[in-house]
Amino acid sequence: MFTQTTVHQAPLHKSFERGPQLPASKPSYLPKNPIELMGAAMPFKSGEEIYGEKEQAEYFYKVLDGCVRTYKMLNDGRRQIGAFYFAGDTFGLEAGDEHTASAEAIGDCKVLVIKRSPVVALAARNSDVARHLWTLTASELSRAQEHMMLLIKTAQERVAGFLLDMARRLSGNDEIDLPMSRQDIADYLGLTIETVSRTLTQFEQAATISVPTSRRIIVRRRGTLLRLNS
Amino acid sequence: MFTQTTVHQAPLHKSFERGPQLPASKPSYLPKNPIELMGAAMPFKSGEEIYGEKEQAEYFYKVLDGCVRTYKMLNDGRRQIGAFYFAGDTFGLEAGDEHTASAEAIGDCKVLVIKRSPVVALAARNSDVARHLWTLTASELSRAQEHMMLLIKTAQERVAGFLLDMARRLSGNDEIDLPMSRQDIADYLGLTIETVSRTLTQFEQAATISVPTSRRIIVRRRGTLLRLNS
DNA sequence: CGACCATTTGATATGGATCAAGCGATGTGG
DNA sequence: CCACATCGCTTGATCCATATCAAATGGTCG
């Protein structure tokens, strides 16, 4: 009946109510700009909800360590992952007062949590801050538009594009350690896990990639992936 | 071979180089805020390109009258329409210096063309203007996220969602006069024209809508569409 | 009237979904 | 330390929604 994606039940749990607290250990990413100094690092456990769609948007977020997914769900449980965020990536900056998507930790991670109100107040005085908010939001928009292009492609093209994106963002070279599950990948690409798995197998059989373990992928023929990426 | 969308050739023509000029006739929409006073109304003919992807983004745009589509194309000609803009809608406000999509007139239309540099300069001094830029961009982001949700639905759900959106934005009641072709609708929904046409026929046979002419659609059972819209 | 283009309708093909089973890694309790 | 449950992933068989290919229809304009 449904074209793609899978049915999920409601988020597991949620312990955001305890609020930001200083982290025990030093994060791998060090904040530098004035906005980030206004935040507190906060650890999230694997699968933990960071915020929910339609919730009051009280904070901005920046990944310090680990990986975060944002997603929207349809009534019947189909899930679309909007983006994966890695160390250094900012997320949750809708200008409205409600979050337009939910966010969850993928694996244990550390997130810089920044109260919005003082930042928005600062932006009213400091045009660099205002410009920064705008720029970040605009690049999210650009990313979303690019993601829409993924969703009209064939399965091979989607997976190829995904691998190239992950290689670029996670390693810079051709060895990818994926932090997310096949289900996450499938819901990001608008495919089923079976199709993702089969497509990876095809690529491996064509010697385009190696898959030593399911979470580890090595790109052997970048050109082939680039060609598929249109 | 391709999952959806159709192959198109390059944009027809382009006469933006002549630059903004005052319109002969009065537009139906009257600008009021300081930003809009910085612009000039400009007519575009049906199908005319307003700007192209990757072009230097020198202007912001606001539809005064008629309808505009923005789109991105893949190398092989598959086209994804990112949005339709109607009178009162602003478009083309990427924060970067290049347009991330192309824009074309759907039918003859009038567009307010606003030079970016003075607006950006004004935003540096006037926080309301800065906030406005941010807010508009964020609502575009939200719209793009919602559009992604459309692209993972079934054909019936996509068409139902599209009709509800058009009814709301174009008429407010249940009588829709579509400004765009079936091909535009198909490329917006990530379907083929045949599937769009067949789905409309199904809805008509189920007495959910009437289609007196191909460009005119009357919603008879909004509830049915709402239910499909998930 | 006739050419043209957009749309609809019909027949068929197919990519990816679905349903189902197998497999390998990880962890748990006896 | 091993039997066994569990979980994530892969593989196989089949189905189906939508694409594709093709033709008919209908509206528009010279």
Q: What's the arrangement of secondary structure elements?
A:
Two copies of one chain form a homodimer.
Chain A: H1 34-37, E1 39-44, E2 49-51, E3 59-73, E4 79-86, E5 90-91, E6 102-115, H2 116-125, H3 127-150, H4 155-171, E7 175-177, H5 182-189, H6 193-205, E8 209-213, E9 216-219, H7 222-228
Antiparallel strand pairs in A: 1-6, 2-6, 3-4, 3-5, 3-6, 7-9, 8-9
Chain A binds a DNA duplex (30 and 30 nucleotides) through helix 6.
Report on this model:
Two copies of one chain form a homodimer. Chain A has seven helices and nine strands. Chain A is of the alpha+beta class and 230 residues long. Chain A has two domains: 138 residues, Sandwich (Jelly Rolls), CATH 2.60.120.10; 75 residues, Winged helix-like DNA-binding domain superfamily/Winged helix DNA-binding domain (Arc Repressor Mutant, subunit A). In chain A, strands 1, 2, 3, 4, 5 and 6 form a six-stranded antiparallel β-sheet that branches. In chain A, a hairpin with a 2-residue loop joins strand 8 and strand 9. In chain A, helix 2 packs across helix 3. The radius of gyration of chain A is 18 Å and the shape is elongated. Chains A and B meet through helix 2 and helix 3 of A and helix 2 and helix 3 of B. The structure holds a DNA duplex (30 and 30 nucleotides).
Question: Nutshell version of this structure?
Answer:
Two copies of one chain form a homodimer. Chain A is about 35% helix and about 25% strand.
